[in-house]
Specification:
2 domains, 382 residues, alpha/beta, 29% strand, 7-stranded mixed sheet, binds S-adenosylmethionine, VC0802-like, Rossmann fold
Length: 382
């Protein structure tokens, strides 16, 4: 059994990235794994409301539950109900209801609807009024087939929901190119690179169709995107406006400029205030880089030093040859085969430019291409 004041459930296609996003948005909290790969206990100084606000921009947070309990299914409804008593018996303002959902298949012999009815009965016994249409508070029950566990607790905010990026899929935008990033990956990368929402400025030095800047803007972050190709900047601007229903972004701008000379192309007021970089350099025939890929990366990282804040985060996305491990963050560096150069060269250039690798993830793009997602930190030493 695991109990926690707050438990977060994750959705999404990539659990290692989802976990990294959760930790990045809650840097002062301890995020602890549980028997289910999609459920995390969150403990520390923040209030429940503070956690809810901090997780608003997340791409991978499915729900937040308070007074939560996880129990392994042992075949006995009574046994499970005994363990859920503490979670159920809370001081509740207003009416209540229950909500069930599953991660994976059903757990053999366990009916969530039966458990839900029993929880409803217990809530009435504790003096609560049920309202199935519009309850003030909802008690959630989730099963996880892989661990054979059940999670119960009170929803903080809404019941489980999707990220809701379907409407702004890259292919739906006015300006689409095959290089356009998926909104979920773009949003996740920004959150990992930048951490909690603040006045920090997100920089996308090679913005292409604007995938990162759209997500930065929709999550109300300050951001600036650059591309040396004016057709890309025009297209990205139309995409950004489209994402805001025809209005200008209140927090982000897109400028034509060269990523290898950021000190020159970024207006002075950004200098020293860039606290997060999201970098998706070109590869393949859809891009028009003027340097060899590794040279372009190194020159970009060098020039970033002119504009970075004293501490900054980065998510760098690099094309690599397919690997067998896709969803884990722990794998051997010598397995990584970049499309351009060697991984040791990439490591060396990150280190020379002041970056320390925090974590790495891989994501399959298609049969012959994988992405390496590198999370790095920059600290100015004097
Ligand atoms: C892989 S694409 C970025 C795709 C982008 N993440 C998106 O969602 O559309 C790389 C971009 O880098 C741009 N680029 C290449 N060299 C550049 C440079 N020196 N300065 C600025 N942009 C550059 C290319 O024009 C291209 O649009």
């Amino acid at each position: 059994m695991v109990m926690s004041e707050v438990m977060v459930t994750l959705r999404g296609w990539h659990l290692a990235l989802a976990h990294a996003e959760l930790q990045a948005l809650l840097p002062t909290m301890t995020v602890t794994s549980t028997p289910s790969k999609r459920w995390y206990a969150v403990e520390g100084p923040m209030s429940v409301e503070g956690i809810e606000r901090a997780l608003e921009p997340a791409a991978n947070v499915e729900s937040i539950l308070s007074h939560a309990t996880i129990v392994e299914w042992n075949g006995s409804y009574e046994g499970v109900m005994d363990i859920f008593q503490t979670s159920l018996q809370q001081d509740i303002n207003g009416t209540v209801s229950t909500y069930t959902w599953r991660h994976g298949k059903k757990i053999d012999g366990c009916s969530l609807s039966s458990l839900s009815k029993m929880c409803g009965g217990a809530l009435v016994d504790f003096g609560n009024n049920i309202d199935l249409e519009q309850a003030d508070q909802t008690f959630g029950l989730c099963s996880d087939a892989a661990s054979s566990c059940i999670l119960a607790g009170w929803f903080v905010g809404s019941t489980p929901s999707a990220f809701g990026a379907e409407r702004r899929q890259a292919t739906e935008r006015p300006f689409f190119k095959p290089v356009s990033l998926d909104p979920r990956l773009a949003r996740t990368a920004i959150n990992i690179a930048c951490g909690p929402i603040s006045t920090n400025i997100v920089l996308d030095p090679m913005t292409g169709t604007g995938g990162f800047i759209i997500e930065a803007s929709l999550s109300k972050r300050n951001g600036v995107g650059l591309d040396h190709n004016s057709a890309m900047i025009e297209g990205a601007q139309s995409n950004l406006k489209w994402a805001h229903d025809g209005e200008d972004s209140p927090t982000c701008v897109l400028l034509r400029g060269d990523a290898t000379a950021l000190g020159t192309f970024l207006p002075q007021h950004y200098h020293g205030h860039i606290a997060g970089i999201v970098l998706d350099p070109p590869y393949g025939r859809n891009s028009q880089g003027s340097y060899q890929p590794l040279e372009l990366l190194e020159k970009t990282l060098m020039s970033a030093k002119d504009v970075l804040a004293k501490t900054a985060g980065m998510v760098l996305i690099l094309p690599i040859h397919p690997m067998t491990v896709f969803e884990e963050s722990g794998f051997h560096h010598d397995e990584i085969k970049p499309l351009h150069g060697t991984f040791s060269e990439v490591q060396r250039m990150l280190s020379v430019c002041g970056w320390t690798i925090e974590a790495m993830f891989t994501e399959r793009v298609h049969k012959s291409l994988t992405r390496l997602v590198v999370h790095a930190k920059f600290v100015l030493l004097n």
